[in-house]
Amino acid sequence: MVNKTFLHLVANDTNLRKTLLRFMALYLLLVAIVFATAYSYFQRQEKIIVREAKNTLSIISELKGGQITNWRRERFSDAFTLSPVFIDAGKLSRLTETRDRIKRQEMFSQWTSDFLKNPEYEGASVYGPALEEITSLDSGGKTQPLSASVALQALQALKEKRIVFSDMYRNEFDHTIDLDIYIPVQTIDTPETRAVGLIVLKIYPEKFLYPFMQANLGMNTTGETYIIRKEGDKAFFLNNLKYLKDSALSLNDSPFSGKQCEAMAVRGVRGIVECDDYRGVSVIASVTDIPDSSWILIVKMDREEVNAFVNRRAMAVSLIVLFFLGLIGASLAFVWYRQIASFYQKQYAAEAEHRTLTRKYDYLIKFANDIIIMFNKDLKVIEANDKALGAYAYSLPEITKKNLKDLQSAEAIPDLTASLDVVAQKGNILFTTTHKRKDGTIFPVEISLQHFIIEWNEFYQAIIRDLSGRA
Q1: Domain residue ranges of the chain, discontinuous segments joined by +
Q2: In this predicted model, which residue has the larger pLDDT, 242 or 340?
Q3: Which own/partner contact pairs does 311-317 have at CB distance under 8 Å and 24+ positions apart?
Q4: pTM of the model
Q5: Architecture of the domain spanning 364-466
């Protein structure tokens, strides 16, 4: 009845008909504007999501690469102290002159007992200049002969009289995956130093390196980290892969394509890349070198997972558009467009602010080994992890009242200004400076400062390494 009355009025009232046509034209124009805006917004959001995924991979790659590098350097530092502090040429001569094998083991165990308390090491061995075994023991007190697969590296350490960090290999005696450090024992009381023996430290990567590689560190469901080594034009996997059982120390036999992550890494491609992983699945990956080694670190996540975030955002945008258009159509007679648009703009702004805070917190890896602090565009502290609170001796409410300049020592503030200028140009910087704790204590630090934008808001993230006590 109402519809017939309305149609009758429209047919017989020219002004009403013109008004209806104007509303219809306005409605169609609004539909076109809304769809164009939504499409533009969706494209921007897609770029932001992909950029955030790449930033996350870069941060995790930097964290894991830095920790692996530090771990290797710590092992080298231990090796430098083992000879001559624990074992020197004189002690090696005593071991050689002792004919009883059990006695040699007891002497060697006594000299290295404090050193081998470090859980990183599974054992230590001593060899003569021709790699003849003098004595050897592992963490359980058993003998452990030198594997033939690494004899050349051991001879290299003796010949060049320098510490050599072996690559990972499978021990043919117990079939474990090992990693050795070869330390030449040198004479120091002769005009020309010479290597008279070799100490071998044994490490099981499965106890530290592999669990660390598999640790998620805030990555998403499909996130994975692994190390490869170039073998000719192929990639040699050094740790077990998430989607490939018993893959440690195996060669990637799959045909290399131009887009395969491992192939790109072997060819020397570094940084953030979009490629196909060892499964043939499209991924976004960060490819970096581990310094002073042949290792190549790959941190990746499936592109499908990134697309899932994009699709969920597209669904949300589509629902909002449909609702918005329906609301406009139902409100034509009352001219509520401005009021309704204002309402949804405020609602969207609140949701955008909530998403900003959520993503900001996700970037802060609470339990990282390094100090991590987030700053707003004015360099005011907005978040800090537990490591930061311990390092600066502030509580969270106290440190969030501070500015980056408040954490700097007075003499280092001019350097901070110069570093911020570099960040403004390049987006990131790595530099050393000095900071001060709550009690005024000054301590040296190394800072990786990165500038990024989330939801059109500027932030700075500082990954800070305390250099106190380092040579």
Answers
A1: 85-207, 364-466
A2: 242
A3: 313/42, 313/45, 313/46, 313/49, 314/42, 317/38, 317/41, 317/42, 317/45
A4: 0.57
A5: 2-Layer Sandwich (3.30)
